[in-house]
# Entry
Amino acid sequence: MIYRKPSNAMWIDAVRLLEQADNLHRQFFRPGQGGPQGPTWEPPIDIFETGRALSVLVALPGVAPDQVQVLIDGATLTVVGERPLPAPAEAHIRRIEIPYGRFERRIALPPGAFEIREHRMVDGCLLLTLLKLG
# Structure
């Protein structure tokens, strides 16, 4: 049986909560980058590599395809756009957990040159297929 002093458990829980708060702050507010024209949040991503291709899945619930721009600049893939506030202006907001506003995600690519082969929305996610050139 492991004996934990109550004071140690309290500090472990406090550190865990601080780490969670820091992660949320970085994901949704990106200090120094926001503002009326700057991005206010970063969408989460998954990246899979298969042979000569990279599949990048960007979670963008509620974002219309025409609100998303994707570009490759050197070794960086950039996804930018905006998720509008879904509630009418006169609504009383009770809770907002899904971020809205301008977003930007910069993704460092592995060595080599890539081109965007496929770009489509699937179940609220942007699916990008990048083909490695050469």
User: Anything to note?
Assistant: The longest helix spans residues 6-29. The first strand starts at residue 45 and ends at 50. Residues 30-34 have pLDDT under 50 and may be disordered.
